[in-house]
Design brief:
Largest sheet: none
Radius of gyration: 29 Å
Low-confidence stretches: 1-22
Shape: elongated
CATH architecture of the largest domain: Up-down Bundle
Strand content: under 5%
CATH superfamily of the largest domain: Rhomboid-like
CATH class of the largest domain: Mainly Alpha
Length: 396
C-alpha cells in the first residue's frame, strides 16, 4: 500500500466526519502524545511514588488472576529511569512520526496498540514476567517499516542500513545482557513487537500473503490471550492459581499448585506456610515437616522457622516431635524478630516443655503472656496454664 494509492482494505476502522479516510496525518499527534504521557508517568513514578502509577502496571501474577488486564498496554508509559525514557522516546519519535505521516492516524493507533499488546503477551507467555516501557512498540514500528519500506520512501530514509544494524544489534545485545544477569530486559516484548509489526506490514500488502498473514496474526493474538488463562509451563501461573484458590477458600484445589511452585522455589515462605497449613489440616504431618524444614534451610524466614519449631514441639504425632530441634528453630525465630513477637516466644516455651524443662518453659511462657494482648493473649494464657500443670502443649 502507498499513501498515494491506498487500497480499499487499508481504510481506517473509524474516521472523523468529513475527513478523507485514506489521508495520512499531517502532524505526529499520537507520537507526541506517547512520548509526553511516558514522561509524565515516569516522573510520577520516580517523584510522587509508585502508588500514583500502580494502575498503569501489573505484576505477572495479577495478570494471571485476571486483574488489571489493561496494563498489557498502559505499561508502555512507565520507564525505569531517565536513560530508558530518553532512548525509547528518541526511537518513538524517529520511527513514529515517519509512519504517522504516511498512513491514516487510526491505522497508526491500531499498529501502536496491537504491537504493544502482542509484545506484552509474548513477554508474559515466554518469560513469565511483565515489562515496562515503549521498546516493544518501538520494535513493532521498526518491523512494520522494514516490511513496508519498498512502498514508502519515507520509511527507507528513516531506517537506512545503519539504523537497521543498530536496532538489530541492540536486540541481540539486550539478550546477552539479560543472559549474563547484568540487567533484566523484556526481550520477548521486543521480539513480540517486532514480529507483530512485520506481520502487520505484510497483512497490509496486496497479494497471496495478505490473507495468510492476517490469519497468522489472529493465531498469535489468540495464543497470547489463551496464555492469560492457561500457562502451566510458567511457575508464577501456578502461584497465581494457588493464590486465587486460597482466597476463595478452596484449599484442596490450591494444594497441587502450591506443591508445584514449592518444588521449584522452596525459598518462598508464603507458599511453604500455606501448603504446610493445608497439610496439617489433612493430618499429613510428615509432608508439612518436610516442606517447612526444606524452606527453613534456604530461607530463614522467622515465620517459617517458628512454624517448624511449633510443629516439632507440639505435633500430635509422637514420631514428628523433636524437642531439641524445636528449641533451635524457635530460638532462631525469636532472635530474628529481636524477641518482640509473643507467639514466637511461646513456641520457645513449648519447645522447652517438649524437652521436659518446665522451669525454662514457664519463664518464656510468662514473658510471652506479659507481652501479648487481645486474642493472642487469651491463647498464650491458655498455653501458660497448661505448662503450669507440667503438661506439654499438644495440637489436637
Amino acid at each position: 500500500m502507498s499513501s498515494s494509492e491506498p487500497s480499499p482494505e487499508a481504510a481506517p476502522i473509524f474516521v472523523e466526519a468529513g475527513s478523507n479516510p485514506s489521508a495520512p496525518a499531517s502532524k505526529p499527534v499520537i507520537t507526541v502524545a506517547l512520548i509526553a504521557l511516558s514522561a509524565i508517568a515516569t516522573w510520577l513514578w520516580k517523584n510522587a511514588g509508585e502508588d500514583y502509577i500502580a494502575w498503569l502496571w501489573a505484576q505477572d501474577v495479577e495478570l494471571w488472576r485476571g486483574m488489571k488486564l489493561w496494563t498489557l498496554f498502559t505499561s508502555l508509559f512507565v520507564h525505569g529511569d531517565l536513560l530508558h525514557l530518553l532512548f525509547n522516546s528518541y526511537w518513538c519519535w524517529h520511527l513514529g512520526r515517519s509512519i504517522e505521516s504516511e498512513i491514516p492516524r487510526p491505522r497508526f493507533l491500531l499498529l501502536v496498540v496491537g504491537t504493544t499488546l502482542l509484545g506484552s503477551l509474548a513477554e508474559l507467555a515466554i518469560s513469565g514476567q511483565t515489562g515496562i516501557g515503549m521498546s516493544g512498540m518501538v520494535y513493532g514500528l521498526f518491523g512494520f517499516m522494514l516490511v513496508m519500506r519498498d512502498q514508502h520512501p519515507a520509511f527507507r530514509r528513516a531506517i537506512d542500513a545503519r539504523t537497521i544494524r543498530l536496532l538489530t544489534g541492540w536486540l541481540v545485545l539486550c539478550f546477552a545482557v539479560d543472559a549474563m544477569n547484568i540487567m533484566r530486559v523484556a526481550n520477548f516484548a521486543h521480539v513480540g513487537g517486532f514480529v507483530s509489526g512485520m506481520l502487520a506490514g505484510l497483512a497490509s500488502k496486496d497479494g497471496l500473503w495478505r490473507t495468510r498473514t492476517r490469519a497468522l496474526l489472529g493465531v498469535l493474538a489468540g495464543t497470547g490471550l489463551v496464555s492469560l488463562g492457561w500457562a502451566p509451563w510458567q511457575d508464577n501461573w501456578h502461584f497465581a492459581r494457588a493464590a486465587a484458590a486460597v482466597d476463595a477458600g478452596d484449599h484442596a484445589s490450591a494444594l497441587p499448585y502450591l506443591d508445584h511452585y514449592h518444588a521449584r522455589h522452596p525459598d518462598n515462605p508464603w507458599v511453604t506456610q500455606t501448603a504446610a497449613n493445608i497439610r496439617l489440616q489433612q493430618k499429613d504431618y510428615a509432608k508439612a515437616l518436610e516442606m517447612l524444614d526444606q524452606t527453613a534451610r534456604v530461607n530463614a524466614d522467622p515465620y517459617v522457622t517458628n512454624s517448624l519449631g511449633w510443629l516439632l514441639a507440639t505435633c500430635a504425632d509422637e514420631g514428628i516431635r523433636d524437642g531439641q530441634r524445636a528449641v533451635l528453630w524457635a530460638k532462631q525465630a525469636c532472635e530474628a524478630t529481636n524477641w518482640k513477637n509473643p507467639s514466637f516466644i511461646d513456641t520457645l516455651a513449648a519447645a522447652h516443655a517438649e524437652n521436659g524443662d518446665f522451669p525454662e518453659a514457664l519463664k518464656w511462657s510468662t514473658k510471652a503472656v506479659e507481652m501479648s494482648t487481645g486474642e493472642e493473649h487469651a491463647a498464650l494464657l491458655e498455653n501458660h496454664q497448661t505448662l503450669q500443670k507440667k503438661q506439654p502443649i499438644r495440637e489436637p
